[in-house]
Amino acid sequence: MNKNKFLTTCLLTGALLASQSAAAEETSYLAGFTSKVNQGIFNMATGFIEIPKNIVNISHDQNILVGLTWGTLRGVAHTVSRTLVGGAEFLSSPIPSGEFASPAYVWERFSEDSRYFGLHIPGYWTHYGPLDNGN
User: Fold this and answer.
1) Number of CB atoms found within 10 A of residue 71's CB
2) Is residue 44 part of a domain?
3) Measuring CA to CA, which of 33, 53, 68, 102 is 20 to 30 A from 77?
4) In a domain, 125, yes or no
């Protein structure tokens, strides 16, 4: 019975954090807080998806051999970066600020490279999308 109460509490808390007001044009403090908490938790939990993301994207641009080697190395670097940035975003969620990682979640705009703190780091296999003023 105690396990069911814990599961119910976790589900209700997750639903509360996931809800955001769609009608408000300006973001409220609570909406910004829940958004940053969600991004922090999901980026810490799903940062490992950067490995197959980079393998697929680099294999698509070059070939499978380059994708498996360089894509794996870049994926591991982005995994560590996204997980650490997710932790920083979770810890700093009470403080209003902009997004730390772009795209905000690893599964958004899957064909684009991840960037952190608004930095556009140039590279041969770097693709930024038009939504974030990418090159």
Assistant:
1) 26
2) yes
3) 33
4) yes
Residue 100 lies in a domain: yes
Gap between the Cα atoms of 83 and 114, Å rounded: 12
* Spatial separation of the C-alpha atoms in residues 12 and 15, rounded to whole Å: 5
Structural domain for 55, as ranges:
29-132
Which tens digit of pLDDT belongs to each residue from 88-132?
A: 999 998 888 888 888 888 888 888 888 888 776 666 556 655 555
Joined together, the tokens standing for residue 91 give: 């810890």
pTM of the shown model = 0.68
| Domain assignment present for 33 | yes
pLDDT: is 133 or 12 the higher one?
Answer: 12
Residue 102 sits at φ, ψ, to 5 deg, of: -135, 125
Dist. CA 87–CA 118, nearest whole Å: 17
